[in-house]
Every structure is written in C-alpha cells, then in structure tokens.
Design goal:
Pfam families: AHSA1. By secondary structure, this protein is of the alpha+beta class. The longest helix has 23 residues. Helices cover 28% and strands 42% of the residues.
Length: 139
C-alpha cells in the first residue's frame, strides 16, 4: 500500500520569489537542512527536466546522508515535481498558487510512502523545512 502526504503552506511573498526559493540551489541550501543537526544540506539541484541531483549531509550509522532525485516536471512558476529517494523512492510535487494581496499558497504532495511511520517522518520534515523556507522568504 502506498500512502500520500499532502500539505499546504501560505507565505506572504511573490510567486516568483517562492519559485526561486524552491529551485535555486543556494536558496535550497538555506532551508533544506539536516533535521537532526540543523546543518544545511549541500545540493546540486537545477530546475531542468531530467536533471539528476543530490542533497548531501553528514552520514550516520543508519543513513549515508544522501538524498537522490531526478526532476520530472518544471512549469515555472506554478509546478515543480521530482523524485526524492532516501531508502524509499517518493515523488514530490509542489504547486504554487498566487492568492493575491501578496500571499502565495504552496501545496505539497509526496507520493509513494510505504507506511505510517514514514508518512509521519515526511510530515515532520516538511513542516520543519517550510518553517525555515518562510525565514528565507523574509530575507
């Protein structure tokens, strides 16, 4: 059985600035961090369909510290999708919607999750990261 995580986040920003925070490697490094240490994860993300990328952090005894992905969809500035593999392989899709009045909704859908524990971990991780994303958008 495959589970799906869906979450929505609202930010006070422009859709262009939010798109840039999702697709610019140096900005991603500011908000996608090691959940346990808070250390930024180096990455080589590029928003081009077919681009293979990695996020890298300090390995532990339980994990090699690498998240691998491949960009599947780039529809600037409204939709971005990529695979996200760290043990399990998931698909992450971001949908951006301009709500007007300087507000943007960011919808996350992560598919291919194998069990409730992994679903809870993904929800915790994205909640924490999107809190950091909000700080990046305020800069």
């Amino acid at each position: 059985m495959s589970l799906t995580l869906t979450m929505d986040f609202q930010f006070t920003t422009s859709i262009e600035k939010l798109w840039s925070a999702l697709t610019d490697s140096s900005k991603l490094a500011k908000w996608v961090a090691n959940i346990h240490t808070g250390q930024a994860m180096e990455n080589d993300f590029k928003p081009f369909v077919g681009h293979r990328f990695q996020f890298r952090t300090q390995p532990t005894e339980y994990w090699n510290g690498i998240i691998e992905g491949e960009v599947l969809i780039v529809e600037q500035p409204n939709r971005l999708s990529y695979t996200w593999a760290s043990g399990e392989k998931h698909t992450v899709t971001w949908t951006l919607k301009d709500l007007g009045d300087g507000k943007v909704n960011l919808h996350l859908e992560q598919t291919g999750i194998s069990n409730d524990q992994a679903l809870g971990g993904a929800k915790y991780g994205w909640s924490k990261w999107c809190g950091e994303l909000e700080k990046v958008l305020e800069q």
